[in-house]
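Case study 2.
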Amino acid sequence: MNNRKENKKGFTLIELLAVIVILAILMMTAIPAVTQAIAKSRRDTYATNAKKFIDAVRTDLFDGDLFVKNGTQEAGSICQAPTNGTYVAVPITTVVLERGGKTSSFGKDYESGYVIVANTQTDSSRSDKFKYYFVGIDKGKNGVENYIEENNLNRSSVKAGNATKNNISAVTTGPLKLGEGTYTLDAICEGD
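Prediction:
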């Protein structure tokens, strides 16, 4: 006769190990998917914020809230829209956004970059036609390293962790190849 009393209320060690192994496998597949979703979201937000910088510059330029730092326009004067075949550049570090603007969606301060307003009209007898471009990198080497037109700013134009500043310094010297045309520097303008 067996006098042992069996406990039917718990898990055996093997059952507990099986549950742990299953949970570990689920975590190994879930963590990369969540990490990838976060990275995509940060790149999407970076592109959205770049468009906000463009909108702010568009408003400030035509409201007379930007002043010439240097270029062919008179230093210290109100920044004017670029003339035919030229561009005006505004450093993103001087642009004030309604919300945020100091740090990127990656949590790093913006290091350098510009909103570029190019007058694509080369015929002086016709009305001005402006296109807006963005280039900008944060201190974590995240950002848009090539001049991207406003309509083309999206997740794929944002690099995470490996963007370079090679093209950014060319803004202050010109000429710049933007899209189909090449434009000369009219002015570097900043907010007050």
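The beta strands are 66-71, 86-91, 110-119, 130-138, 143-149, 176-178, 181-191.
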